[in-house]
Amino acid sequence: MTPLSLDATQYPASHGLLRSLMLMAWMVEARDPYTGGHLWRVARMAEELGRSMGLPDKEIRRIALAGFLHDIGKIGVPDAVLRKPGKLDDDEYAVIQAHPDIGRRILAEHPLAHLVMDVVFHHHETPDGRGYPLGLANTDIPLDARLVGICDAFDAMTSTRPYRKGMPIAKALDIISNAAGTQFDAELGRQFVALGHAGAFDHIVGHTDEGIPLGVCISCGPVIQRYRHTQAGEHADCPACNARYEWQQTGSGLHAAHIGKTHGSQGMPLPDTSLLHTLLEEWSPLQA
Fold this sequence. Notes:
mainly alpha; Rubrerythrin, domain 2; 288 residues; 11 helices; Hypothetical protein af1432
């Protein structure tokens, strides 16, 4: 089934600004074949953590939106760095470290910047002052950036990359617990760990949408895109090695079965517009 359209004519004019940011964030993520679903996972974990901290509902939605947009500055990171299948060297890591400032500059004149700017610019700051880009410490780091920073790091730890398998949830939670007060906000870190041990993230880790687990290429590891409306018999292609898969129905749901190679590059996966539509409906009231 063809993914739903996210054409601007389907939405009220007031949604256009938010829709454009969400599409930009999606396309940044789609450039990296190894991080599919990262933005959704960070947004949903941020919701869980914000709710557990007793934040108002509107603030929780705003932070979730910021979590979805936090990496928008990676639009300025070259493909050679963003898509590198191995570990980054020092020079490449310095390029990656520029993405919060790139995001700040992209959003500087945007009418919705006030909703997400602190997270976009400060989500890599750490309480011990050793983060970037400004080396802020403790409560000088905005609360929403501290909150999203934990979710971002946890997802990075539990996600598989070509050079390492994703950590078990329990191991990643132990790392956050041990680094609470230095790399991570102490109070938020403790609450995040408690939520994790209670199973609050089990339905998020390893998923690209609610109830949709990651599809992974057996040859090279990147995410195989599956949409909410994907049906058995439809095809999907690995964005890195062009391996072709067919979605087949199994007792546990749809499974991506390898069936060969495509004849050429398929490019980036298309946006999951049904998912983006749901998120747009959730977050558009923030513009009021």
